[in-house]
Amino acid sequence: MKEDRQRAVLQLVATRPVHSQEELVSLLQRQGFDVTQATISRDIKELGLAKVPIRENGTEIFKYVVPTAAVNYVSRLHRAVAELVTSIEGSVNLIVLRTPPGSAMLVASAVDEAKWPEVLGTLGGDDTVLIVVRSPEEMAVVKQRFIDLKGTGA
Fold it and tell me: In the chain, where are the structural domains located?
């Protein structure tokens, strides 16, 4: 149970911005975990998560991350983006990921496998992945997830 919960914590932190312990509790409860803020506080400490500043809409806020020195990839997508994506750009409802030559299909496949509800589909070329997002309003959120997976502020 604890291992499953902590795996879910790592998955959430790796795939979306999580700004507070309360938000993490809510997200885990939606996944069926019976957790309290105190439990999550202990998990954060045991997992070595760090809270780092990011800029969102011109305001500095904080989110949890897995420290890069102890990266434990929680998904194929996390590993593919962290290791292969060299740039991330977005426009309207499209996101373009650049990779080294020959890597784009692997990244596109990992995006498809993740089954993010906001993503309608992907096209993978040699060194470019085109991601079609369901709506322009969701593009910034999805782009931020890719930036978070990359871990460098691409």
Answer: 2-70, 76-150
Question: Per-residue pLDDT tens for 104-150?
Answer: 998 999 899 888 889 999 999 999 999 999 999 999 989 998 998 88
Q: Specify the fold of 2-70.
A: Arc Repressor Mutant, subunit A (1.10.10)
H helix or E strand, kind and range, residue 52 = strand 50-56
Strand pairing category for 128-133 and 119-124: antiparallel
Q: How many whole angstroms separate alpha carbon 5 and alpha carbon 139?
A: 29
CATH 3.30.1360.40 given to domain 76-150: yes
Is residue 57 very low, low, confident or very high in pLDDT (cuts 50, 70, 90)? Answer: confident
- Whole-angstrom CA distances from 62 to 40, 72, 98, 106, 120 are 17, 21, 27, 31, 29
How many other C-beta atoms can be found within 10 angstroms of the C-beta atom of residue 43?
20
Collapsed DSSP state (helix, strand, coil) of residue 133: strand
DSSP secondary structure letter of residue 70 = G
Q: Cβ distance 101 to 72 under 8 Å?
A: no
C-alpha span between 54 and 77 (Å, rounded): 22
How far apart (Å, rounded) are the C-alpha atoms in residues 45 and 100?
36
